[in-house]
Amino acid sequence: MISGATRGTGTGNALARHLMKDENEVILLPGRGLGSASLQGRVVELVALSAGGRTGRPVYHVHCSPDPSIPDEAAARARFWMLFEAEFGMEGQPWCGVEHVKKDRRHEHRVYTVAKPDGGVVDLRFDFIRREKIARVVEYEHGMAPVPSKHARAIVAALRRDGRND
Asked: Is the pLDDT of residue 15 over 90?
């Protein structure tokens, strides 16, 4: 499973345009905690919701793309997002997103606010390794062999701390 992420600034208009590019088949996802009908409106809402947070980069754009050999890629994506939200403490955080189909491969993008209702900010330290750990769990649960990684030792240590000795 491939995942990536960036933190954003500004109004969110450029991000919304990027996610709606014509080169992909784009499916707007229902999201959570937002009222706008369009993706651009939802991203603008996320930025506005983040105004009270103590951060200059209020939105977090994350994508995940399951390995094509996983037969139930929708289940793999759902599991990734469940584990992602638990790992980063983002359960209940507002988000919007799209599903892309590009060259017969589906992947999903989500944009979250990192500002919490109390003005705090979601802890995103070591986000790459934490997302990679989540990807390895999803791959394992779908019968795939471990993907080589320069962070393999750190990931195994984190999984063991989480009680995942399998």
From this structure: no
Q: What is the pLDDT of residue 9?
A: 66
CB 7 within 8 A of CB 65: no
Inter-residue contact 30 to 80 (CB < 8 Å):
no
Confidence category of residue 119, pLDDT binned at 50, 70, 90: confident
Residue whose pair of structure tokens reads 């934490």 in the numeric block: 130
Threshold 0.85, pTM exceeds: yes
Query: Distance between CA 159 and CA 87 in Å, rounded?
Result: 11
**What is the CA 135 to chain-centroid distance, rounded?**
11
Is-contact 136 147, C-beta < 8 A? yes
Residue 132 structure tokens? 């990679």
Q: Is the dihedral of CA 18, 42, 57, 150 positive or negative?
A: negative
The sign of the torsion formed by the CA atoms of 65, 159, 124, 115 equals: positive
